[in-house]
Amino acid sequence: MAATDLERFSSAEPEPRSLSLGGHVGFDSLPDQLVSKSVTQGFSFNILCVGETGIGKSTLMNTLFNTTFETEEASHHEECVRLRPQTYDLQESNVQLKLTIVDAVGFGDQINKDESYRPIVDYIDAQFENYLQEELKIRRSLFDYHDTRIHVCLYFITPTGHSLKSLDLVTMKKLDSKVNIIPIIAKADTISKSELHKFKIKIMGELVSNGVQIYQFPTDDEAVAEINAVMNAHLPFAVVGSTEEVKVGNKLVRARQYPWGVVQGECGVENENHCDFVKLREMLIRVNMEDLREQTHSRHYELYRRCKLEEMGFQDSDGDSQPFSLQETYEAKRKEFLSELQRKEEEMRQMFVNKVKETELELKEKERELHEKFEHLKRLHQEEKRKVEEKRRELEEETNAFNRRKAAVEALQSQALHATSQQPLRKDKDKKN
Ligand code: GTP
Ligand code: MG
After folding, report:
1. Edge-to-edge strands of the sheet including 95-105?
2. Is ligand 1 within 6 A of the CB of residue 264?
3. 254 lines ligand 1 (CB under 6 A)
4. Ion ligand 2 — residues with CB under 5 Å?
5. Measured between alpha carbons, how far is 392 from 267 in angstroms, rounded to an integer?
6. Which of 59, 185, 242, 278 to mutate to test the pocket of ligand 1 (most atoms within 8 A of CB)?
7. For ligand 1, is residue 240 a contact (CB within 6 Å)?
8. Which of 48, 178, 31 is nearest to 103 (CA)?
9. Distance separating alpha carbons of residues 238 and 222, to the nearest angstrom
10. Helix (H), strand (E) at residue 22
11. How many whole angstroms from 212 Cα to the centroid of ligand 1?
12. pLDDT above 50: residue 266
């Protein structure tokens, strides 16, 4: 379509007129059609549990969904934080729920916790990226796509009664633009009621002063505005988890039984006087599950998608400029990429040439050094040879002199011997005479 046609269609949009219908036509059943379609399709909901090992994550999940999920106890010896997702198909009445529970295994167990948040952030981003890739496909199948984006992060706070650990603050700060965070105080039965009240105020104060955005239950829908506003004031929820069923009166309730025989609360974990477990279940499952899914898509995923597309060079047009063209952006990006590639190639070639030159110089220097060494050794060798030669000559002269002396001595000796052998003969002659 020519640009002029585009402009004509986009600028000449008349105001719609309101008309009344003469009788019932049936499109008031649209909401029912929507519900029916959604029910057939089923829903997915993904929960991320972040909290230190053994804080009660699995127990709470089991208590929340009133079932027993497969759990594997984590050791305290994980080298780094590892994300473990497990997906279950659940059904209530005729509603199918594909529930994924993702555990941040080994969180808080490393000596150096500086990077503990990173695997969690990477996991959340990877789910956004998978969804974005599906959206960008020419043949996309979002209808039956298993959406693994994290809808809520339950952040388990250790019931110390003091203040938040810096690990908690840093992790929540890193996650707050990527996921809906609901902070909860775990094992709330280990802290007294008055301490708990002070602890809650302290936590909220610290979250606010550090600019950590936690999920706020929405108050724009009249039907739930009041309850959500009340519940927002109860955050962070203090929860107690239990999979044990204890007999209270003549009722079996989920509760914690202690050695001293005290059963937590009058009616176990569902006793609202003692803990906020019921509030959490109401807010998370019964009232705001759809809002959490909605917020994930419209706020967190939208932010990820915008940043990613901008990073890839796509831009929305502002009012005055030409409308956004995918083709042009692609061409521009391609040119930019090719010139960058060329620049890198040239840079690498230059680097290679320089390296070769450097190596050549080094080799030459080594050769010169070797040559010098050789000459030096040669000189030393000649010097040694000359000395040895001199020594040999001296020795030869000494030998000659010695031989001469030896010959002279031998001559003298033989003369002396001759002389002594002549003397007795002369004596005999003398006697005879
Ligand atoms: P990992 O998955 O190994 O990190 O542990 P987890 O966080 O899933 O903890 P899990 O639910 O396995 O619970 C660990 C221990 O804490 C178990 O002995 C639970 O019975 C106990 N526990 C769980 N919830 C509570 C609670 O609310 N109060 C108390 N006092 N103990 C709890
Ligand atoms: Mg567990």
Report:
1. 82-92, 95-105, 43-50, 152-157, 181-185, 237-238
2. no
3. no
4. 57-58, 71
5. 116
6. 59
7. yes
8. 48
9. 27
10. none
11. 26
12. no
Distance CA 20, CA 130 (A): 45
Measure the CA–CA gap between 269 and 246, rounded to whole angstroms. Answer: 11
Q: Which residues of 143-159 are buried (b: 16+ CB within 10 A; e: fewer)?
A: eeeebbbbbbbbbbbbb
pLDDT at 273 over 60: no
Verify whether ligand 1 is closer than 6 Å to residue 200 (CB atom). no
Where is average pLDDT lowest: 109-123, 215-229, 412-426? 412-426
Q: Do the Cβ atoms of 256 and 186 come closer than 8 Å? A: no
Task: Give tens-digit pLDDT for 76-127.
Answer: 777 788 899 999 999 998 899 999 999 999 898 877 778 889 999 999 999 9
* Distance of CA 84 from the midpoint of ligand 1 (Å): 17
Confidence of residue 254 (pLDDT cuts 50, 70, 90): low
Report the pLDDT averaged over residues 11-15: 71
What's the gap in Å between 130 CA and the centre of ligand 2? 26
Half-sphere exposure of 84 (CA within 13 A, CB side): 16
- Put simply, whether the predicted model's pTM sits higher than 0.85 gets the answer no
Q: What is the number of the ligand closest to the CA of 104?
A: 1
63 lines ligand 1 (CB under 6 A): no
**Scanning the structure block, which residue is given the tokens 């010959």?**
407
